[in-house]
Design goal:
Blueprint (H helix, E strand, L loop, with lengths): L4 E2 L3 E4 L6 H8 L2 H4 L10 H18 L3 E6 L5 E8 L13 E7 L8 H17 L4 E7 L3 H9 L3 E8 L2 E9 L3
Parallel strand pairs: 5-6
Antiparallel strand pairs: 1-2, 2-3, 3-4, 4-5, 6-8, 7-8
């Protein structure tokens, strides 16, 4: 049910139970979490709930988040995909599939996020269809993710705030 996508250096695939320890380690790493949520490090219990929700998206609505595996090492290095966050109607990202990505810190700066986002967007063009609106919400301080979003065709159109932290809201409409 969950498609596998391949790029020259990555495999985007279904999450497995074997991915959880690396996922939990990322969610307990201050370098990863400083731009997510309130910046709080997640306990194993909290990480487990997030991990399950990624798998649940696919089963409930037919789309969601992939595990990202580095082809050369076979290592789980993060996650990327789409989420239905059920944001309040007044939020600028409300009503759209929201794209997000999280990669292990030792993989930053290698172009993996841009490569994975491109693959996921290609899949999204087929799945969501031409004219679909996609969004991503990024911390104002997360320069790396802002660059990835812009390289992949997202344009900032609004700002938002969560937990007292500034967020930039990006969108793109899938080509017809």
């Amino acid at each position: 049910m969950i498609p596998t996508l391949e790029t020259p250096r990555l495999v985007l695939r279904a999450h497995t139970l074997a991915d959880f320890p690396a996922f939990a380690a990322n969610r307990a790493d201050p370098r990863v979490m400083r731009f997510l949520g309130k910046g709080d490090l997640l306990s194993e219990e909290e990480a487990w709930l997030r991990f399950q929700s990624m798998v649940g998206h696919w089963h409930l609505i037919g789309w969601g988040t992939w595990a990202v595996e580095e082809t050369s090492s076979g290592a789980y290095i993060g996650s990327i995909g789409f989420a239905d966050k059920r944001r309040p109607p007044e939020h600028p990202a409300s009503g759209a599939a929201e794209m997000g990505w999280l990669l292990a810190p030792d993989t930053h700066g290698k172009g993996y996020a841009t490569e994975a986002v491109g693959a996921a967007l290609s899949w999204g063009c087929t799945h969501f269809g031409a004219g679909a609106r996609l969004v991503c919400v990024i911390s104002t301080e997360n320069i790396g993710s802002i660059r990835v979003a812009e390289k992949c065709g997202f344009r900032q159109f609004a700002t938002a705030s969560r937990y007292g932290l500034g967020r930039l809201v990006f969108e793109q409409t899938l080509p017809r």
